[in-house]
Amino acid sequence: MNFIERGIYMNNILFAFLLTLGAGLCTGIGSFIAFFSKRTNIKFLSVTLGFSAGVMIYVSFIEIFPTAQESLIKFAGEKNGTIFTVLAFFGGMLLIALIDKLIPSYENPHEVKNIEDINDKTLEKNRNLHRMGIFSALAIGIHNFPEGLATFMSAIDNPTLGISIAIAIALHNIPEGIAISVPIYFSTGSKKKALIYSFLSGVSEPLGAVIGYLILLPFMNDLIFGIIFAGVAGIMVFISLDELLPAAEKYGEHHLAIYGLISGMIVMATSLLIF
Q1: Residue 273: which of 82, 39, 118, 62 has the closest Cα?
Q2: Which of 219, 214, 205 is nearest to 177 (CA)?
Q3: Which of 163, 154, 159 is nearest to 268 (CA)?
């Protein structure tokens, strides 16, 4: 690798990292909305979650999964490569599902919460505040880690694809920031600490990028690349469905969520065709 090629490579790494950082820190926007809005904008959240899910589902099946399959077929042949792709895809789903399962439901940042919950004093009486703070901090870090890896690895392979995924994850991080702020506020009684924890939760996403860079990139080949990409596709599909369906059920705006989902797919398809 000559000097120019190395410079381009390092620029791609930096660009991918900044995308991941920007997407992660959008959890802080959710906290600001939670503390400075009087009511939850149900229609906005329904459309936003749907749009984010549409982008991630479309790009997972149309772009990321086929790319992973192509890489694994190069390594292991058509039959075995396809089997490896499917296994890695559902392995990614299993990984994020296990993380969800191990996190208690109330501390889970993917559990839907409203801004109005901040004023619900009955919740405060029924919770161990110290325990809740610890679990919330752990849940935030663990759950956002694979999202950061997904954004980073996608952006390195295809910057345009990385931008699309970063936008989708940023959008779904906004309502996630609301979900994070509510339990942290209950656990500490401090809006300032809730904001800090929310931003720290976003830091775990670029941390996933750094871990990916330091551990995975030096050993990158068709096998590792394919497995990671297929796993990322599975993680993104699971996150999309895991957030969209419960949110649509709680907010009662099923049609808006679906309209948002279809719009996200259309925007993603259009961007891939143009760029």
Answers
A1: 62
A2: 205
A3: 163
User: CA geometry: angle at 136 spanning 135 and 142, to 5°?
Assistant: 85
Q: Which of 157, 165, 169 is nearest to 224 (CA)?
A: 157
The count of C-alpha atoms lying within 13 angstroms of the C-alpha of 7, restricted to the half-sphere facing its C-beta, is 3
Longest dimension (CA), the chain: 64
Other Cβ atoms within 10 Å of 176 Cβ, number: 29
Secondary structure of 56-83 as H, E, C letters: HHHHHHHHHHHHHHHHHHHHHCHHHHHH
d(CA 34, CA 208): 26
pLDDT single digits (tens) 108-161: 555 555 555 555 544 444 445 445 545 555 565 666 777 788 788 888 878 888
270: which 2 tokens? Answer: 């259009």
